[in-house]
Amino acid sequence: MARYKTKQEQRQVRRYRIRKKVVGGAERPRISVYRSLNHIYAQLIDDVSGRTLAMADDKSPEIAAKLGDAKGKVGRAKAVGKILAERAKAIGIHRAAFDRGGYLYHGRVKALAEGAREGGLEF
After folding, report:
1. What is the largest CA-CA distance in the chain?
2. Could you tell me how far CA 94 lies from the centroid of its own chain?
């Protein structure tokens, strides 16, 4: 009898499928997104050298300054994208590859991507 895959197993399958295609280098690092129940995290990763170049999450004190009128988890995700874009521009990165981490491009993941685009990153 076939066993159904759990949500976590389904996400892992999608994640591996995406990672086969999305590779980040020094010129165009990969934006890796992790979404927990309450928080969202993003990293700029150079897969060639195996280094994290910059990171941002919604736990940082800079989030309160960036939020403004935006509230809730979607607003915090957009602010995380803007902070990540600022940190990327500070180290001279203007282009990136977006790795949604197996999550649907919807809600908080989409808001993070839009925030990064507004901050000046191209992908």
Report:
1. 54
2. 15
Dihedral sign computed on CA atoms, order 63, 45, 18, 27: positive
Provide the 8-state DSSP code for 104. Answer: -
pLDDT of the residue at 68 = 65
Contact (CB, 8 A) for 30 and 37? no
pLDDT at 70: 65
Nearest to 52 by CA among 79, 88, 78: 88
Q: Write down the pLDDT at residue 30.
A: 95
DSSP state of 3: P
Q: Tokens for 93, please give them.
A: 């990165």
Check if the beta carbon of residue 88 is closer than 8 Å to that of residue 121. yes
Give the 3-state secondary structure of residue 73.
Answer: helix
Type of residue at 121: L
- Residue whose tokens read 């990763």: 45
Q: Could you give phi then psi for residue 111, rounded to 5 degrees?
A: -65, -40
